[in-house]
Amino acid sequence: MGRAKTVVVAGASGFIGRYLTRRFEQDGWTVCTIGRRSSGSSTSSWDDDGGMQRVLNGASLLVNLAGRSVSCRYSQRNKAVILNSRVSTTQALSRALALCQEPPSTWLNASTGTIYRDARDRPQSEADGELGTGFSVDVAKAWEAALEAAETPGTRKIPLRIAIVLGRGGGALQPFANLARLGLGGHMGTGDQKFSWIHVEDLYRSIRFLHARTDISGPVNVASPDVVSNRDLMHLVRRAFGVRFGLPTPAWLLRAGAVLIRTETELVLKSRWVQPQKLLDAGFVYSQPELGRALLQIAKGRA
To answer: CA torsion 129→70→160→210, rounded to 10°?
Structure first.
């Protein structure tokens, strides 16, 4: 008999995974995990197909977040690790699910809103969004292709094209907050690039929502409808953290700084305009729909 309120979170060691684990448990779910190490009957490691089958069999929901952080320089070695960490784990889950007599009814696999092109002219929805080019887009395409190739007749598969995740104690807000505190909280580059985001609580709630809504299929954009420019983003960050003034940062200086701290500027210079049309059409209600209020809540929590 299936475990109706059992969720398997794969790649649960990061900020999002820890948050989802805690929230599922608070809402009365049994949480099993798959990661680099196995530490008990409710966990499994990636190199143990039998162990993955054990935790997946009879579970109701699978959420896969596994993937190496992209906060690094895109050297050939790092590119290979980033790509393989996403594709190989998705393929491992596919093999384990094929062994299950009672596989989860829903498999939500992380993808990224970065799959769309640099968009400054119109929003990119699931129906009419145009895919972009470059390394990050290639990774997203391969990630989703691995999910599509998985033969899971008893399991509905949905790639989650997740925008930049914000929340207390983690997420992508910290670099912006640090710049603001240092007096560099002005706009970045031209400042007109769009910033698509999602509060981590609404990411959790959208996962629960999509699991319940069995009529939804295909890629789903997980983002807030409140998309702002980088210029407005930095104004709201300064307001949330009590900083009155911020110097703008030109693109050339951002690129030079990225080399020094061994990361890439894509996070702040690419225009992401991700429209969550499927969630909106299905009636999903956001707990944190406005960026300004979300930032104030996060800043207050940090204080």
So the answer is: -140
Least confident residue range of 34-43, 70-79, 208-217: 34-43
CATH topology of domain 3-170+197-224+272-287: Rossmann fold (3.40.50)
Q: Which two tokens stand for residue 106?
A: 């829903």
Kindly report the pTM of this predicted structure: 0.94
Both structure tokens of 176: 């912006």
Domain spans, the chain: 3-170+197-224+272-287
CA 68/CA 78 separation, integer angstroms: 9
Percent of the chain with pLDDT over 90: 78
Rounded to whole angstroms, the Cα distance separating 87 from 93 reads 10
Report pLDDT digits (tens) over 88-110: 999 999 999 999 999 999 999 99
- Please name the residue ranges forming H helices in 226-270: 230-240, 251-260, 266-269
Of 175, 172, 174, 180, the closest CA to residue 247 belongs to: 180
Residues in contact with 295: Cβ distance below 8 Å, sequence separation at least 6, in sequence order: 166, 173, 236, 237, 239, 240
- Copy the structure tokens of residue 211: 């699991």
Assign 156 a pLDDT band (cuts: 50, 70, 90). very high
Task: Report residue 192 as tokens.
Answer: 């007109």
Q: CA torsion 266→269→271→276, rounded to 10°?
A: 50
